[in-house]
Amino acid sequence: MRVIIADDHALFRDGLRSLLEAxxxxxxxxxGNGKEALALAREHRPDIVLMDLDMPVxxxxxxxxLISAELQDVRVVVLTASEDDADLFDAVKFGARGxxxxxxxxxxxxxxxxxxxxxxxxLTPNLARKVLGEFAKGSAPEPEExxxxxxxxxxxxxxxxxxxxxxxxxxxxxxxxxxENTVKYHLRNILYKLHLKNRxxxxxxxxxxxxxxxxxxx
Length: 218
What we know:
By secondary structure, the protein is an alpha/beta fold. Helix content is 55%, strand content 12%. The chain is built from 11 helices and 6 strands.
């Protein structure tokens, strides 16, 4: 795993670097603000940028938006002390693959980061509920009408499992009796057809528009 750390507190960066390197993670660079994080992401193309939010010059939300739009192979995971729900919702809308509190246990952190490399969202259950609740109220972008009808039966099966709470690629594969690569293929197609950025937006759209029966695969 190749990581860039973006945080304006040097002591926190030092501690996080030590923790990551002890776990075998390759820390490519450190940034003290969002502008530096964007430049370093362009230069190194890491697997993950661990992004703080409250930073000088350019804040973490703006950096997340720019990195996610320009460098789609770079995954941004917000690592923050902020408890503001608006920051959470904006980060996800701007393309963040995860939103984690800084007081997370090390074992949980590495579990989430491993999941991000498999294109799984890094959200604690409580934060996931908040995101889905917010997007279900209508803040998720609306795809064009014809594309929802273009989903295959198998893609709808994937949607139903996601809505019922089955989120990891491994669990989806086991429930559908397919490989994880096949699951990733279906998820990519769903995101493309619905013009959405992540699974949280997909689930909210599916629930709001009645695309699936969430009880069928429960």
